[in-house]
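writing this on my phone so excuse typos. first protein, seq and then structure
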Amino acid sequence: MKREEIIIPQADLDRQRDFQERIRALFSARGLSPRACVETFGCQQNVADGQRIMGMLEAMGFTFTQEPGEADLVLLNTCAIREHAEQRVFGNLGLLTHTKKERPDQVLVLCGCMAQEERVAKRVRESYRHVDLVFGPQALWRFPELLWQVYETRKRVFSIEDEHGGIAEGLPVVRERGVKAWVSIMYGCNNFCSYCIVPYVRGRERSREPAAVLTEVRQLVDEGYKDITLLGQNVNSYGNDLDRGYHFPELLEDIDQIPGDYWIRFMSSHPKDASPRLFDVMAKCSHVAKQLHLPFQSGNNRVLEEMNRRYTRESYLELIRYAKSVMPGLVLTSDVIIGFPGETEAEAMDTVSLVEEVGFDALFTFIYSPRPGTRAASMPDPVPREEKQRWFDKLLEVQNRRSAAIHAGYAGRTVRVLVDGESGDGDYPLSSRTEGNRLVRLKGDPALIGRFLEVRITGSNTWALYGEPV
């Protein structure tokens, strides 16, 4: 598609603002102050989408509640990556039949990646008839218009067309006050990994204009946010569709010029698009955290080929060696899938051996979960779940031992942290993060939230460090 066909025209966005005003006026005429309950599942990209949905709802006159039974509108913003997340959503939809009976005028909305899947929309249409509105990620910017159709016609509305996807700038946003913020710099994915549903539900890759990203980050820094994460299904391919020689490393360099005391992170990255140039930029930029989340998924080349990952074990290890050479002390994390269809025990142990060789600080580990509509879902998968669980347990044993050892090595050290909230731990009531995104539970007063501190580490376990402000 041409660039001008991807950017949503201002006239179309103004039309959505008109629908926002109509809905606000509708409730105002009835003397009502509507409340919405928004629940978001899944990744940070979904969190960012949810904040824009809340922004539009606020513009329509809604306030917010966490209790579905108190809400005039309940919205589930869904994830399609794992089967478990899908079942949770269907379970919640079932429970909402009770709130709908108690509040017949309540509007129930299902949106996000899961809603974009045709089979899910069909199931909702046939079996969850109390759901009023269903729309996918590509239609998010049209939420006011779709919701107005529900109120005006009192009929169910479905918007799940297979679209390339667009970019809508200037949508209102409601962010949680604090120190962390998420900025989507691109949408969609072109990779079509054989196990992943994302390209089918979020459309093709499309990058925001650099000026728009820079304006948003600058505003966040001015508002006091200090831990800002750049988001995309594959941030490393940012700019490929701009066709102007401006890519992710250049964006990081320009963001780094914004004055202030803050950290910049990014996720998720794809090894096929990571480069020494990116790592050199990370190393020199003072605001870019020396933390890299680079999913490798499998340590076996045959499995990587079946996954359509387009790199090898050897090329991945070479990337890691270079990144460590220019950023000593780099904190490394990754995603791993165990039990991919057709994977043997020996191939699974290749993954374990790569984990041992690299020495990751932490991993996000998963047993393969088939997603209908992906190529992997139709592959023969003869290994029983119990056997995959045994391989998975071996992986966890290796990584947990490594994580515990790394954390134990911090005892007595002084590190810089950003205090980002309360921990819920009576002895260590504050939560904070190092530049490498390590969790540090702290002793101290909540007045410290939002500040950078020097902290002496006094203890640790596999998942966290413990410390006291110096």
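second protein below, same order as before
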Amino acid sequence: MASNRFVISRLSLMMFLQFFIWGGFFVTMGVYLLEIFRGEEGLNTIIGQSYATHNWAAVLAPVLVGLIADRYFNAERVNAVCHILGAGLLWYAATVSEPSAFIWIMFAYFMLYMPTLALVNAISFANIGDPDKEFPKIRVWGTLGWIVAGFVVAQTILGWVNIPILGWFTGIESGIQSTAIPLQMSAIISLIYGFYSFTLPATPPSEKGKKFSLAEALGLDAVKLLTNKNFAIFSFSSFAISIPLAFYYARTNDFIAAVAFGDAAPSFMTIGQMSEVFFMILIPFFIVRLGVKWMLLVGMLAWTLRYFLFGFFPDSVFLILVGIALHGICYDFFFVTGQLYVEKKAPRSLRASAQGFFNLLTYGVGMLIGNYLLGWWGDSIELDGATQQGWLDGAFAFWIMPAIAALGVAIFFFIFFWDDEVEAKTIDPNVSTLIDADPGETSPGTVA
């Protein structure tokens, strides 16, 4: 028993470091780019393209995992090498002052990082006895890692308690998120984590000797499920709603930093992750009472409401906080419920492929298009995201685009999706079915 607790503790630390690294630089990257590329033509497009690198990697990462980690090498060793090499790329990215070079370096970095999201799950499952009970306890440390990273970069916990850890090390008391320090911090932690990964429990390749299938790696085996009308409507809606989702991940931090919270913005962004944890606990309650369709629809409408709040009330601190807190409903009600729907709808032989297809449509292709769209749209309306006045003048024009898009998807879904075959009570909202959410999503910093 003591040995099992020790393993869980080590895997929990693995998860904490995994998401601390990502949360340490990803949330604040927009503010950093606004500073180092100030005056560059098409600055909003540069930001969108930079964030799109992780979506490209989300599309291609399953191929890397399928070819290498699943067939030839232990998962903990591949994880270690990816993070050690990634540390070098993050540190190098912090020295670059040319947009295209920065974008390519971040693409190379995420090609190493994104496969590790699957690797840490594989390492965990291979070394615990009861996944239903033990994995959620391990995975929640990933969310805590993301939250703590936000506090560290902001040097405060929601403005209540100051934690000037980075200030002590760097001598910089404020404005850290607009410097290269978050990238450098994540690089250092990535290096430490990489060497720590070599000490993790051995996890031999699970698919050794099995022939590689590109279609299976990308989840394309599940395309045949699109012959079902409701699954096709669900899939299209999932893809479409992920396009406006990209606006939140890429631009909310620099928006709230400019109009409300300044250097403390990364700390307040963690309210979204806290909200995720809270609503995750409530999913079993709501899914039985509302059913799949209304859970998904509420999630979509929460997206719409959030963007309307940002667009119409950029000078209201309270409503901005409400918009951030809505992230729990936006994510949990749609993505987690969506995964439960896929799990129930797909035959057992296709469930893994169906989940992979769902992730490909959302955090891969959907958000990829969204990041390019937000860059083009920001430049089209001449958004000045580096100043308070620029955001106050441009907030409505910028946020109304994803608001209308999300509302349009919600209306389409409400009209056409009627799946009587999958009743709310036929879905078991077991925690173990929620483990692969958010690019993760996961999405950035999710408990699922």
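The CA atoms of residues 29 and 177 lie 8 Å apart. thats all i got for now
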